[in-house]
Amino acid sequence: MPIIKIDGIELECSEDWTILDAATFLGIEIPTLCYHEGLSPWGGCRICIVEIGKENNTKLVSSCTFHVQNDLIVRTASKRVIKARKMILELLIAQNPTSKILQDLASKIGLREVRFKPKWEKCIYCGLCIRMCEEQMGASAIGFVHRGKNLKITTPFDKTSETCLRCGACMYICPACTLRCEGPNPASVLCNGCYNTLQPTCLDVYGDYSCWMGLKGDCGTCVDVNANINNYISTNQKINEKKE
User: Which entry of 74, 106, 145, 188 is 20 to 30 Å from 195 by CA?
Assistant: First the structure.
């Protein structure tokens, strides 16, 4: 059985595991969009990317499709990973700014701006609806057609499909169908209504989000920062009291 090191934690894995499976086993959270445990992995959205390798010989791979290998070293939340995830999410939100799932994820990972012109499309082409229809419902009523800017999801020849079950499973699993709080016509591209200003401070110190790793427990930068803030406030209060 392959032994990998993920965020500094050694783990003996089953040979059929992906990196995402290993991270989930350890309780390490990796954000996903096009992945669903009941469907075949696709790796199309790339939100679940992680960094593998060591020193200067590293690369980014999708954790939901990359299978574990012996002596594999994985970093799930390095600076490079976080930067790439934010860029990918910018592109996805520019494609579909009305998705609540995308907006919530933006707030969670600390995305503060979208630099691309919004398209206000109703689909992010994650393929979840296609796989759900084919693999779980057994209908295969919809699929991708065309390529590039003309890519879309539709029925054969854009006509009403005789195999469609009218079950609504495609809408149930679609991340673009859940509208953000402002509804279908929001005033801004990025909401950030749920943004937490208390972002982790460990990334600049260790090069990884150590507090998200859970099991390592050797970070503590947020404790140091908060302690410094409290000392600063306490010192200023004493100075002000002397002046009075």
Answer: 74
Pairing label, strands 9-12, 143-145? unpaired
In a shared domain, residues 133 and 47: no
147 C-beta neighbours (distance < 10 Å), count: 7
Q: Are residues 220 and 148 in the same domain?
A: no
CA distances from 67 to 74, 82, 183 (A): 12, 21, 39
Structure token pair of residue 168: 């609504």
Q: Nearest to residue 140, comparing CAs of 127, 130, 151? A: 130
| Each residue's pLDDT tens digit, 123-168 | 999 999 999 999 999 999 999 999 998 999 999 999 999 999 999 9
pLDDT in tens, 160-200: 999 999 999 999 999 999 999 888 889 899 998 887 666 66
Q: Which of 58, 61, 64 is nearest to 31 (CA)?
A: 64
The residue length of the chain stands at 244
Q: What is the pTM of this model?
A: 0.83
Q: How far apart are the first and last CA of the chain?
A: 70
103 backbone dihedrals φ, ψ, rounded to 5°: -65, -40
Q: Looking at residue 35, which CATH number applies to its domain?
A: 3.10.20.740
Residues 52 and 149 occupy one common structural domain: no
| Domain count within the chain | 2
Cα torsion 34, 36, 41, 42 to 10°: value is: -10
